[in-house]
Every structure is written in C-alpha cells, then in structure tokens.
Amino acid sequence: MKRLRSATGMALVASASIAIVIGTASASRASWVSNNCSPYHFSDSVFQRKTSQSYAAVAAGEGYEWGGGCWNDNNRDDTPGAPDSNGEGPDCSGLVFKTWELKNSYGTSGGEYWDKLENVHGPYVAADFSSPTSSMPFHSITKSVSSMQYMDAFASSGHVALLSSKTDSSSSSDYVYEAKSDSSGTGLNYEGYMGNSSYKAAAREDWTADCYPNCGSPTGPDITFP
Amino acid sequence: MLRWKGSVVAVSALVALGTVAAIGAARAGSAGAANPSEPARLTLFYTPPVLARAGERVRVPVDLVCATPRGQVCSASLSVTEQTAGRAARTIDAGPTHQRSIDLTRPARRAAGGGGSVGFSFLARSGSTSLAYPAGGSEPLRVYVTSEMPNVAIPDIPFGQTATGRTVLYLPWGSGPTHAGLQPGHESPTLGPASFDVDAHGRISLLDSEQNRLAVFRGGRLIRQTRLPLSSDSDIATSPSGVAFIGDRSGAWVTVRRASAHAVTSIAAIASPLLGQVRTASGRAFVNVLPEDSWVAVDRPGGPRTVGLPNGNGLQLLRSGGEHRIRVGAVVGGLARDAVELTTRRTLGEVALAQMVRTGDYWIVAHPYRERPTPADQFEAIHVTDGAVVQAFAIADASFADQRPLNRFRLVGRYLYQLTTSPDGLRVVRFDIGRES
After folding, report:
1. Helix (H) or strand (E) holding A95
2. Which of B49, B91, B123, B396 is most buried per CB count within 10 Å?
3. Min CA distance, A105 vs chain B (Å)?
4. DSSP string covering A108-160, please?
5. Computed from CA positions of residues A156, A75, A52, A64, in that sequence, does the dihedral angle turn out positive or negative?
6. B353 vs A226, which has greater pLDDT?
7. Minimum distance, in Å, between the CA of residue A51 and any CA atom of chain B
8. Which positions in chain A touch B62 (Cβ < 8 Å)?
9. Nearest CA of chain B to the CA of A145: how many Å?
10. Is A67 on the interface with B (CB under 8 A)?
C-alpha cells in the first residue's frame, strides 16, 4: 500500500513536471526575444561615427524595452503595448551602448560590434553618460552646436539620446536617435535637449576617424554652384 | 502608468534542456533574418538657410545617411538643383554628401539683385531607393535673400530673473478626467501631455497623450474630452472657433485629424518620418514636416511646400535659429520683407516660438542656456517691432516632464501661454503681454 502510494506520488510528480515543461515551453515561445534574438558580436578595432549613425538609423522605427537590447529592421514595434517583458527594442542606454560599440564590461575601453539581434543592454545607465567618471570609455564635453559632433550624446540622470547629425532644423532644434518610451519606441526624433540644462553632453573615447582607411585623401570641398 | 518589470520564471533542469533545444532552433532560424535585397534606408539632414543677408556666404550643411538593413554604411549620391528667377535650373551631381555643404553664395548674390530668392531641391539615390526634397509639389524649397535685415541685441536678462504668470489651468498627475497622464522616466524621458493650444475664447485644448485623449477646458474646468490614440510626438493647433487639428506620426507618415465637438476625422496623411509643428492660419491648418523642414497645407498635401509658415493670405513667416542668432522675416509677393536678426553672446537652444503680428512685428521666444558656473536655462520672450526690441521678459523653464521643443508656448491675443510641468502636476500659465497681438 505504501509502495502504491509512492508510485502514485511519483506519477503525480511526473505529470506535474510534464505540465511545467509544456507550460514553460509555451512561455518561451511567447517571448519575442527568445524567438527572434541570438548572440552575435566580435571585438572591433574600427568604430566610426558614420557607421554608428547608420547602425542607429536602422534601430529607428523599432520598439522600446526597459533593459532591452534586441531589435530587427522591419520599421515597426513588434511588441507594442508590452512593456518590459522581453519584447523588441533597447532602452535609451542600451541603444547608446550598442551604437557606440562599447565593451560589455564596466569601464573597459575598446570596441565591440553587437548585432542588432543580440539581446544585450550593456553595463551603463543614463546617469553614467551624464556624469562619467575618468575610468569610463566616454567623457563629458561642452554642450553646444559648435563643440558637439554627430553621434555625441545628450544625457540626463534618466535619459540619453544621440545627436543624429551636425545639421539642425530651422528652429534650431536637434535631430536625435533615441529609445524614448514604450509608446513612442526607438526612433529619429526632434528634441530640445541642447537648451535643456538637465542634459549634459558626452562623447565616446577613441572614435576611429571617419576618413579611415583613406585619411591621406583630401576631404570633399563644398559643393559650389557657380 | 508606472512600468513594471516582468518577473523571471525559474525552470527545472529537465524543462530547461528541452526548452533550450527549442530556442536554439528558433535562434538559428532568425539570426540571418535580415533580407539583403531590402532597399537601403536613406535619411537626408540639412540645415535650411531660410533667410540670408545680401552679400553674405550662404552654405547649406548637408548630411546624407545611407544604411543597409544590417546597419552598415552604404553608398549614396545626392543631386542638388538650383534655380534663380529668370535663369535655367542647374543640377550638380554632388556624389556622396556625408557631412558636406552646398555653397549657394553666388546664386544668392544674383537673387539679391533680382528675384529675391534661390530655389533648391535635393534628390538622393542609393540603388533603387530614392529620396526627394521637397517630396511633394512642383515648387522648390527656397532661401530668401534680403539687403535689409537690421541687427538687434537680445536683452541679457540674468538667469533666474523670470516673470511670474497666472496659472489658468492646473491638473495633478494621475488618471481620469481631472488629472493629466504622466509616464515617469526610467532609462527614458519622463513624458507628460504632448501639446496644447488656446482658442480665441480662452478655451485650452490639451493633448493628454498618456491618457489618449483630447481634453478641452474653460475657466479651469473640463468641458469636453475625446478619446483618441496619441503619441508623445503629437501636436495640436486650434482655429479661433475651437476646431482642433491634431498632427501625429505613424511609421513613415505624418497624419492629421480634425476634431470638433462632434467628431474626429482623419483628413491627411503626408509621407514624412517626423512632425515638426501644426499651426492654423485663416481657418486653414499647416503642418511642418521634418527633416525636409517645409510647411504643407493640410487641405492641399500635394500642393507647393514652403519654407515659411503661411498665414493663409499669401504671406509667410520665415524663421531660422542658430547658436547665437535668430532671424525672422516675412515673405510678401515672393520677396523677403521686414527681416530682423536678433543676436546674443549667450548660447541659444531652440526657437520655442516665432509669431508674426503683422509684417515687421514679431514675437519670439528664445531659449538661452549656460553650462557654467552652474547649468541654467530659461526662456526669453521678445517683442520686435520695426527692427527694435520693444518688450522682453524671461520665463522659467518649468519642465518636470520632457516636452517637444515647439509645443510649450502659444500666443493668442494679448496673452502668451506656457505649458509647464512640475512634480505635482501640469499647469498652463498665462502672461499678459499688454496689447492685442
């Protein structure tokens, strides 16, 4: 009788385990990240502003996830209205981390290419970009149109965005790439961070010059109409 | 409104084995998901010169960004066409134009002696993908050239010496009709209502984007609300009678809806990735689309686009901002008139408002800021008449929630309204500017 009870108990445990297996497998299938993301990265000695600009341009139009870091390139938020549950998109600091090709180890210099489909956020939060310490692979710079270069960052204690281009609009507002919110997603936006004293400016260390590997050639002059 | 973080579910080793295998298979299939035949993504940024002084150098910074679906740099070229009145159009194949400038100095000199403006347009190409500015209409974009543009100094009002307005609407943060929705930032900006406008009767229309509603208030009380999906990038402009035009972005489109007391109707969809502003004039609505940076009449989205804000009667308001200067002027009969240049040694952010009372009579809200000795910024409302500053006062940048740069101020009649936010809620603050505008 005791053995029977024991056998019945084992059967129940087995049934429960199977139920958990099925249930968990279903949950895994339901996660956008588990279905779409995969690791692919490599150490990169050449990281240029122009390549990071193109990288961010592809992130534009995708979703936003707090703590996230994986997105595709279909120009839509694949997990709208699903905040912070392994859905599509980076958060603001995750976008800067991947776009700047930073190493996934706090304070480490050098470059690492991260495929957009690798779900990695990196070790930094917005406040790190706003008030970087000397050991960080990025530093504070003067916040002004003349001193900032494209792909430098505007950072506050809670948000960070990338200056898309050295050009600005007729109202002098700036175009930025940013992971903004669950409702807005990640995109090219039009913001007034330049004049907002809550925001500081930061630049990545050791950018490879955009002219590389042909830096001996003269850069193109103005295109002049006669 | 507050976000939540999904909890991690622990799994047994047995479960994990089976699941990992399944996930591994799924990942293997998705890793190469990018379609190499997908067209490149082109984005063209440029700083429109808008208003030039005769004889000065006219350079148009241009930045053409070409990205493959993998996020790599691709090859793209730009053609620029220039046309001055009375001359044949000329096109230059500029080739790759990453961080370069178009020099229109010579055409601008000719324009100063004749037609008064230089027309220009862009056509970017990469493989089968192309991008044209202006995207619609047959008229090119323009830089207006004038020989008369007096220079006036922006008064140097010390940081912190700000005027106090009267609060005409207060809503605490929260949910429900008498509250305003807030999304606290956490690795994202803190977001509140997207925009507002005030009609000629003093009714305040609020785009409460976090609650997906248009709410209309009179005397501080809610008189009407309409449910509609809104993003934090939306903007609103109301006609004097209170009809609202709501611009928003949806993927690669800027959409415009018309909302009256009785119905909300979609009235336009314009191919553009970014909405700048929505404004009304003479009962018509106009939308500023970006990065093209031109104005489109909502009732004629395929018609000519303009670099200035039309007033509905054939005039345009020109405005351009810079690090230390702001230029405003009017286009009358195709020529720049009553232009003025405001300059300062301080560093300026965006031009938060530029509005023409009549030609030569402008209200401008500038946004000076500093980083040292301590970071500070404030707005400065400046009234310029006939080339002279006749009134100026500073306004605190009261923004707990991030707001789009051109959605904070509205000038209606004798009042300048500011949308402010603080940790307790939202306020619309009114400043009496002393005369009808």
Report:
1. helix A92-99
2. B49
3. 19
4. --S-EEE-TTS----S--HHHHHS--TTSSEEEE--STTT--TT-EEE-SS-E
5. positive
6. B353
7. 6
8. 167
9. 6
10. yes
The answer to whether A32 and A79 are in contact (CB under 8 A) is yes
Query: What does the DSSP 8-state code read for residue B191?
Result: B
Torsion of CA A131, A134, A136, A140, to 10 degrees: 40
- Minimal Cβ distance to A125: which of B41, B187, B403: B187
User: What is the distance between the alpha carbons of residues B415 and B431, in angstroms, rounded to a whole number?
Assistant: 6
In the β-sheet with B325-332, what is the strand arrangement from edge to edge?
Answer: B151-153, B335-343, B325-332, B316-321, B309-310
Mean pLDDT of chain B: 89
What radius of gyration do chain B's Cα atoms show? 24
Instruction: Specify the pairing of strand B59-67 against strand B77-84.
Output: unpaired
CB A121 within 8 A of CB A67: yes
Residues in A closer than 8 angstroms to B348, CB to CB, are 172, 195
User: Residues 90-109, chain A: which have Cβ within 8 Å of B?
Assistant: 91-94
Kindly determine whether residue B5 and residue A67, on different chains, have CB atoms separated by under 8 Å: yes
pLDDT tens-place string over residues A145-196: 999 999 999 999 999 999 999 899 999 999 999 999 988 899 999 999 999 9
Instruction: Determine whether the interchain pair A222/B102 forms a contact, defined as Cβ–Cβ distance below 8 Å.
Output: yes
Only one residue has tokens 């002004």, namely A144
Chain A interface, mutation test: which of B350, B365, B399, most A Cβ atoms within 10 Å? Answer: B350
User: Is the pLDDT assigned to residue A11 strictly greater than 70?
Assistant: no
Distance between CA B286 and CA A106 in Å, rounded?
A: 48
Helix axes A92-99, A49-59, angle to 10 degrees: 140
The reported pLDDT for the residue numbered A12 is 38
pLDDT range class, residue B435, cuts 50, 70, 90: low
State the count of interchain CB pairs (< 8 A) between A and B.
295
Q: What percent of chain B stands above pLDDT 90? A: 79
DSSP for B201-265? T-PEEEEEGGGTEEEEEETTEEEEEEE----TT-EEEE-TT--EEEEEEETTEEEEEEE-SS-EE
Tokens 């939308």 found at: B287
Q: Give the gap in angstroms from C-alpha A72 to the nearest C-alpha of chain B.
A: 8
Rounded CA Rg of chain A: 23
Structure tokens at A9: 């108990």
